[in-house]
Design a protein that fits this description.
By secondary structure, the chain is of the alpha/beta class. It folds into 2 domains: about 1-80, no CATH class; about 90-250 and about 325-430, Rossmann fold. The chain contains 14 helices and 14 strands. A 9-stranded mixed beta sheet has the order 1-2-3-5-4-6-7-13-14, with helices on both faces. The protein has a 3-stranded antiparallel beta sheet with strand order 8-9-10. Strands 11-12 form a two-stranded antiparallel sheet. Helix 2 (about 25-50) packs antiparallel against helix 3. The chain is globular and about 75 Å long. The two termini are about 40 Å apart.
Length: about 425
């Protein structure tokens, strides 16, 4: 035990030293925001002046152009906070019912939210309990607002609401991949096993790890089914630019260049993190032309008075630009084991030092969903889960490839609502029969 303790301590010291070297990055980010505050405030006041109907200039093309330019400046320099869910009601069996979002379980790095529907009369249709595991990959769980909204009419929905690492005090300890899996298992125990789990993107791997661990131990609280959507189960299948970057650079590159320390006065000051603003920079750079065009279109819509199009842009980017920090331990372990060493598909993934056997998964039904144009998780990466679980009966398996959608379209948008969600719903209902044994 002493040797293990010394080894962990030495690694921790190395991580601290590396984070200390790159910590000015976070300080410069905070200072730039502080420096822009006066200009942002001035832009906001000036925009109101150019939009005031009592100002004759406001009705001219020049006035509208000035107001539009000032709004663009304010929005591109703003710090975006955590968005609201905005899901106050849903339609169940043709009746509009209120929805109350309650925290029913919590740990420092995660809260479990229950979207409780208030019924006057119990619905006739079965309402399976569904746990939606949101990705811990830079965006807040509210990114899945459309996913949750689609399932609310016919499911009792729970969502993992991951914490922004910069808000978690250092005294709470670090959060690694093992801790992620432990969190999921604790939630399954809290739900009593009478549930289905849907993992969107990144959590596909830890969800499968949790299933393997629970099946290896014959845990009675194992969920009835797992639905994996656009997840990196085996990134050797049709690798994308994201996958190739990790392979080419190696883990030391990420450890030395993207890990930094949270500055004061955040609650998580001195915590080693992968900051959300770096993640956002990566997101934006992948499709920079598209984002530049979207902002140009916003300027044009504002000048032309197209309020509906402008509001759609605001809604999307209010969500897209709101990012959170990830604990450095979780980020580095995920990059290394999922994207570099491919530990899960090779049968080498460990949980607290014990090798996980995905072939032990037999009671849990499995459905995988992929997008034909997914540039984050290539086609075949999620479907690989079926190969790793050979003992799941055929009648408890399903795979669906959605034509014409990218990564975001796998869990949101019109095709998700009309083609993907109904298939998932049918699969869940087909697994609602009592489990044998």
């Amino acid at each position: 035990m002493a040797v293990i303790g010394e080894f962990v301590g030495s690694v921790r010291q190395e991580e601290d030293d590396i984070a200390l070297q790159s910590s000015p990055l976070y300080w410069m980010y905070e200072m730039s925001h502080a420096a822009l505050n006066p200009s942002r405030a001035m832009a906001g006041m000036s925009r109101l002046m150019f939009q005031n109907p009592m100002n004759p200039v406001a009705h001219t093309t020049m006035g509208k152009s000035m107001a539009a330019a000032l709004e663009l400046f304010e929005r591109t320099t703003r710090r975006y906070g955590k968005p609201e869910w905005g899901l106050d009601t849903t339609l169940v069996g043709g009746t509009r019912v209120p929805v109350h979002i309650n925290e029913v379980w919590s740990r420092p790095f995660c809260r479990l939210l229950h979207f409780e529907r208030e019924f006057t009369h119990p619905p006739r249709r079965p309402q399976p309990r569904l746990l939606v595991v949101a990705p811990m990959s830079g965006h807040y769980a509210t990114l899945l607002r459309g996913t949750v909204e689609a399932f609310l009419p016919n499911h009792d929905v729970y969502v993992t609401d991951w914490s922004d690492a910069k808000t978690v005090p250092l005294s709470a300890g670090s959060f690694g991949l093992d801790d992620y899996v432990d969190t999921l298992i604790s939630i399954f125990h809290h739900l009593g096993g009478d549930c289905h789990v849907l993992a969107v993107c990144q959590p596909a791997v830890p969800v499968m790890m949790a299933m393997a661990r629970m099946e290896m131990e014959q845990d009675p609280y194992t969920p009835k089914s797992m639905i994996l959507m656009g997840g990196p189960i085996d990134t050797r299948e049709h690798p994308t630019a994201v996958n190739q970057l990790a392979m080419d650079k190696g883990i030391d590159f990420f450890r030395r260049n993207v890990i930094t320390q949270v500055p004061w006065p955040h609650e998580g000051a001195m915590r080693n993190v992968y900051p959300g603003f770096l993640q956002l920079t990566g997101f934006m750079s992948m499709n920079l032309d598209r984002h530049l065009k979207a902002h140009y279109d916003l300027f044009r819509h504002l000048v032309q008075g197209d309020g509906d199009s402008a509001e759609k842009h605001r809604e999307f980017y209010d969500e897209y630009l709101a990012v959170m920090d990830l604990d450095a331990k979780f980020y580095l372990e995920t990059v290394e084991s999922v994207f570099i060493t491919h530990a899960l598909p090779k049968g080498e993934m460990l949980h607290h030092g014990e090798k996980l056997r995905t072939d032990a998964i037999s009671r849990v039904a499995l459905m995988t969903v992929e997008g034909e144009k997914d540039d984050i998780s290539g086609v075949g990466q999620t479907q690989a889960a079926h190969r790793l679980c050979p003992h799941i009966p055929e009648e408890k398996r399903a795979h669906y490839l959605q034509p014409g959608v990218g990564h975001y379209g796998v869990f949101n948008g019109s095709r998700f609502r009309s083609e993907i969600q109904p298939r998932i719903q049918d699969f869940i209902l087909s697994q609602e029969r009592p489990r044998k044994g």
